[in-house]
Amino acid sequence: MGVNLRDLIPDSIRVETDVKGLKGNTIALDAYNTLYQFLAAIRQPDGTPLMDRMGRVTSHLSGLFYRTINLAEEGVRPVYVFDGEPPRFKAKELEERARRREQAEAKLAEARTAGLVEEARKYAQQAIRLSSGMVEEAKKLLEAMGIPWVQAPGEGEAQAAYMARRGDAWAAGSQDYDSLLFGSTRLVRNLAITGRRKLPGKDLYVEVKPEVIELSALLKNLGITREQLIAIGIILGTDYNEGAKGIGPKRALNIVKSIGDPLKAIKAAGVREPWIDEVYNYFLNPPVTSDYTITFNPPNEREINRILVEEHDFNPDRVAKAVDRLKKAYRENLKAKQSRLDAWFS
DNA sequence: CATATGGA
DNA sequence: TCCATATGG
């Protein structure tokens, strides 16, 4: 999922930090990416997600609620950016994902009847569905919490990058690297508090710290332009194209630097999709909107309780405790600072 | 992924 | 304060 720039980016460009080091910064978070990861991670050992008494999945709400409060408490100002319409050349990728999900669902049923717990968990993670209802409910919860969200016209990563470029956000936040191709000034990955990540297939957890990748530092280090970075991404493969067979990050960088012109390099590398010029233009100039405001509001405790406790069977004491933390974080970290002049007029 | 809890 | 383990919905 997403463009795979992992092996292109030198370790020296990945700046490890902790959440405290991001205090005061507005971060435009890829909502889809975030919710999807909660759905993948917040599960019982056999892969069963958290559910309310009606059997509706609540893992995404639990993750969103507690993580957002943690970030706010540490002084991070989160803005969630939701996907709009995908570009039409993403249809193939989306169909493939749907197909893989159906296969995983079948395998999950098999594993469950066979009583294979680890197998079941594996396939449950591959069978994740983020429904439009779940997305709508996440937006409702954010509103109740007083946390801003933005509806992107196209890809959320593109909108987040635009917000960073305008200076409305300090960085885009996602596990994927796409926002760098979309021109985000910075990308923050691994933005979580506890920083635990399960190693695939093993019962081991490793500590993972947030990392910041600055676009200008990356381009300078590689000696390329943003346009050339887009070309490399396309050669390596994106959600919109397969990438050139047998070419890894080193050769992709070489080809792009020696040829110079991004579109010529893409073709010289052997990328054959006929719609590839459109993909290049989409990364360079994606649909975005300036019609948003980033405003933090006081948490609406009644509404939070209605959604989490009444509707979805969250523990009222736990929720109340978290809401208290959110109220304090709002006062101390999120509330717009009033200038002395504003105070005089109000 | 996150909180809660109990023992070192 | 740290760690391991259980539980959250």
Structural class: alpha/beta
Shape: globular
Give the DSSP E fraction (strand runs of 2 or more residues): 5-15%
Radius of gyration (CA) equals: 21 Å
Distance between the termini: 49 Å
State the strand order across the main sheet.
Answer: 1-9-6-5-2-3-4
Number of helices: 15
Number of strands: 9
Could you name the CATH class of the largest domain? Alpha Beta
The number of domains: 2
Give the low-pLDDT segments.
Answer: none
Average pLDDT, to the nearest integer? Answer: 95
Examine the secondary-structure arrangement and name the CATH architecture of the largest domain: 3-Layer(aba) Sandwich
SSE pattern = EEHHEHHHEHEHEEEEHHHHHHHH
Helix content: 40-55%
Any descriptors?
two-stranded antiparallel sheet, 9 strands, DNA-binding, alpha/beta, Rossmann fold, 346 residues, DNA polymerase, domain 1, seven-stranded mixed beta sheet, 2 domains
Describe this structure in words.
- With 346 residues, this protein is an alpha/beta fold.
- It has 2 domains: 1-222, Rossmann fold; 224-285, 5' to 3' exonuclease, C-terminal subdomain (DNA polymerase, domain 1, Orthogonal Bundle).
- Helix content is 49%, strand content 10%.
- The protein has 15 helices and 9 strands.
- The strands form 2 sheets. Strands 1-9-6-5-2-3-4 form a 7-stranded mixed sheet, sandwiched between helices.
- Helix 5 (132-145) packs antiparallel against helix 13.
